[in-house]
Design goal:
- The complex is a heterotrimer of chains A (222), B (537) and C (492).
- Chain A has 222 residues and is mostly helical.
- Chain A has 3 domains: 108 residues, NADH-ubiquinone/plastoquinone oxidoreductase chain 6, subunit NuoJ (Four Helix Bundle (Hemerythrin (Met), subunit A)), CATH 1.20.120; 69 residues, no CATH class; 28 residues.
- Chain A is 69% helix and 10% strand.
- A two-stranded antiparallel sheet of chain A has the order 1-2.
- The C terminus of chain C is likely disordered.
- In chain C, 78% of the residues lie in helices and 0% in strands.
- Chain C has 492 residues and is an all-alpha fold.
- Chain C has 22 helices and no strands.
- The longest helix of chain C is centred in the middle third of the chain and has 32 residues.
- The chains are: A mainly alpha (222), B mainly alpha (537), C mainly alpha (492).
Amino acid sequence: MSPALVVFLVIGTIAVASSILVVAMRNPVHSALFLLLTFLCVAILFVMKGAEFVGAVQVLVYAGGIMVLFLFVVMLINVRHLPDERVLSNFWKGGLLVGLAVFLLFFTMVRPGVFHDPVASDQALRTTYTYRHRKVHQPDGTVVRKLIRRGKVVGNSEAVGMALYTDYLVPFEVASLFLLVAMIGAIVIGKRELSAIEEENIPAYMLERSETEHEVKEAMSA
Amino acid sequence: MNYILSITLWLPVAAAVILLFFPKTAASAIKGFGLLASLATFVASLGILNGFHEGVAGLQLTESLAWIPQWGIRYALGVDGISLWLILLTTLLTPVVFLSSWNTIHKHPKEYVIAFLIMEAAMIGVFVASDLLLFYVFFELTLLPMYLVIGVWGGANRIYAAIKFFLFTIAGSLLMLLGIIYLAFAHFHDTGVLTFTITELYGTTLAPHAQVLLFFAFALAFAIKVPLFPLHTWLPDAHVEAPTGGSIILAGVMLKMGTYGFLRFVLPFFPDATAKYAGLLIALAVIGIVYGALVAWVQPDMKKLVAYSSVSHLGFCVLGIFALNQTSIEGSILQMVNHGLSTGALFLCVGVIYERRHTRLLADYGGLAKTMPVFATFFIIAMLSSVGLPGLNGFIGEFLILAGSFQTWPRATIVAATGVILAAIYLLWLIQRVFFGPITKEENKNVREIAWNEVVALVPLVVLMVWIGVRPNVFLRKMTPSVQQLLQIVHKTDAGKAMIAGVGRRVSGVGDQNRPHEAMLRPPTPDPRLPLSGGVR
Amino acid sequence: MNWNDMIYILPEVILTIGASAMLLVPVTGGRGAKLSAKWMMIILLAITAGALIYCSHAVENIDQSRQLQAMFALDGFSIFFKLLFIGAIAMLVMLSEDFLAEGKYSPWEYYSLLGFALCGMMFMASGVHLITIYIGLELLSLSSYILAGFYKSELKSTEAAMKYFILGAVSSAILLYGISLIYGVCGSLNLLDIAAAMSTIVTNDALMFGIMLLGAGLCFKIAAVPFHVWTPDVYEGAPTPIAAFLSTGSKAAAFAIFARIFYTGLHDFHLEWNYVLATISALSMIIGNLAAITQDNVKRMLGYSSIAHAGYVLLGVISLNALGLRGILMYSVVYVFANLGIWATVLMLRRHQYAGERVDDFEGLSRRSPLWAFAMVIFLLSLGGIPPTAGFIGKYFLFAAAVQAGFGWLAVIAVLMSAVSMFYYLRLVVAMYLREGVEAEFAITTPLRIVAGICLVVTLALGIVPSSLIDQAVLSSSHVAAHAALTPHAGR
């Protein structure tokens, strides 16, 4: 057993166990902390596969940014302890069954030899190519424009950057639109009123809204 | 090129479009215009009769335009001996409908007239289309106006009846659509030409099981339409709830779309399957004849009685078709026309007294012959025509069918013949209970006599009943060549094969426009092997 | 990427800039003008459409860079669908006016979100790379979630948005998992590369699993059984114009990527997936149509009917022949226009106390507005596939494709279910024509009239003279069909 395998087994076990604890914990703060642990373990797995950049992003964005947001929200709405029956209901057993089935499916399906592996080395993974049109003087004297490919071995983050800003530029930019839409959505849904004038003479729908909130609370506590 | 078929087809549509601009309240102007338009259509259809060449077997007065060239679907029209009289029946019955409903329809007259005009166009389209998909379009197009006619102007239970009618028919015809698609593809694989032109699809080679499946896909659609036992259950509901005009068209023309479909498509497209399953259809037809007659016998409701008599009479038509010989098929086509005339007249008459007394129960009548002598005369003539009295049209049709089918299916024919006797019983009993005997009900003492518009509507029907009864050859002569050719295809005689080879297997042909059907225009050679070739002369 | 590539994505760029600019208008003081938001959106859509048409001609002389080529295609297929989307969104803008006129909600954010949704749809139509398709789909989905919850003062709308969001997120995860498995096996996410890789693979469990997960995710987006449970609830709860959007534009976009992925990318594994999809298709048609019969709420009925229509469109994917591909294109057009017409009617009747949602509300429509009732009948017949409406032409294509591909049994189920579907479509006809109904007022506004008029003309015209649409569909699908190595079949 190589040291890498030992590390993998330990980290992997922690990742799986802590992700189960995320859903099993009663206290949302504990759940969030276990989620943090899961993220960290996954980050370590990324680093082991030679993807330091992704591992770092995992720590910075998920563990740093998103987790903080989670905790912030949990504290903001002040949910200390979820009711017992909501966590361990019959759905839980069904979910476990489905989870096991999916696990077995993957266990039988995902095995060595199934997947495409064209990359011989870590270096090849980090090779980025640039393309350029060059004028080439042919032996017979004519000048032809030819596409020249140049390979260059770069660092991990540079490779990711190259991929994002060349090959994947279009989806990358569209993803920024996605974030913009998410922001608009948060504003649209979070915003209460249209104008100050309307706020003064409270329209009927706002009353309805407070009613619905009340109903939601009742439903939650029931 | 002669555009008379297109003119006849589109005249009612044009009239319907013009009617859209009539004010809603001008009821008599709307009805008058509708009547005028339908009469003009009738005159146009007389032009078809005029242009029709006797002794020519194939489609005549053909028109052909590319409609959806990508699939080889054409706006192709044509008429032959099989469809000629059905077109005329359609154009005749539509003015009859307008006349009969002159005083009875007060609710939304504009929509009523438009619905019937569109329906007329669609029915003409069914009979003149010589492209399978065009036929299908018209076949479906008849549904919606009839659905609305039953549903809007019908009786108390009209919505149920309308939906039942619609769903029964559409279920069958959608399966037929699949059959059409399959057939066209089979032809495409055969010849490399994608076409829906009927004559070119004749003789498409089909695997035996495919032929059987297609046979049933088509036969189901038409059997529902006819309607053949046990698919007839929509018919009594539809007839009872439909207004008089709807019943006349439904019984007079729409049921014939089924029998016409058998003749035009099922027989020539699937000759092997037809030969194999003719017995089944004949059995159903005979069951329908006897069952329809027996049920009609016990009906207390006059309209239901006539509706069940339709099941019985249409059984004769199907029997004649699947007996597969010249006499029986000619008789069958003639019987379609006869049934349109006599049942149309009967429904009209039932409508006349219903409008006056608002009841259709036989028990509520009696002795009407004294108060309405003219009306009684018309009713009795129509009834006798339906019974099959010699000298009137019904006799000729039924006699030809029975004579023809006796050659091939003697036992079934004997059973079917009891239907004639039963018809005499239940119809005479109807007459007896409605018109004769003492007047038992006070209301029947001063019933209004038949009005001018109803007389005008009934007279042409009665005249034709007598005319066909006395001079059937005038009508039969025009059918003979087409029926002969049909039988040649069905029996796969040499002449039939030659005909198919001449038309069906042409490899080019989607592209060239307005191609005259040369092969179809040749006079047919009588085949001595055919039973009773030439019919009864 | 280079500057030449800009011309390929110019319509999307213009749309994005415009949609973002609309967010800024209220900030700069244009808040009060509600009508102008609508017109600005219409103008934006017109410019986008113009740019699209211009670019589709301009790109003929301009080479695409290698990177863009792997991601994005401006071919006939995508132009066809993009124009359809722009048209659908333009009509939805018209339909939304009354909803926004209530004044509770800001039109600027609303139209802007519609613009971003359209942008996502356009990327979906153009995507030839699973990442582009996925990102476009997510952009569309996220906008849809927000729009579905736009009636935030109503519990039903919030519930609809929540349901849609959670189920949508799960399906996106499934889709993404499928994509990653496919990447693992094929080594690329470009559809052509996937097809090339697959042609060398005989059998591979992980790939099969990936295709199944991908299919499941896509089936959620088109609402095919068994991934359909959200549809009726969301259609019922969402604001009516948004329900119209979900059942037309959004669905057509999902049809587009379904066709593109399965025709261009996965055609080599046809024998493995076609029976699974055939089962899904059959179940969708059966369950969708049967469940629709019992619905009294028109929005729910349309929801179930849209499930059934997803089943019909799947016929075109399963048959994997030229006819089927054209059928998907044509059916999308036919379905969008007929459905929008019906939604316009529902909106028109919506005036009083959320009337217009129940079948009873249609009673006596033929008396109150004969022309509108007639248009409604045409739309319903078109959805039912009855000639001479456009729906018949669309269904004909799909049925013919299935028959040609040897899926006769599926075609039989499809026609029988079409007959069943006529039953509940006729319920509306019965209500409109055969029942008298109460004299309720309703206001037919000009925008609704325009939308219904356009839909009526298109539905009838394509039904009576379909040749031009067929030609267009043949032309537009030729590129994708060529990649699927389809030999030119019947029908040209």
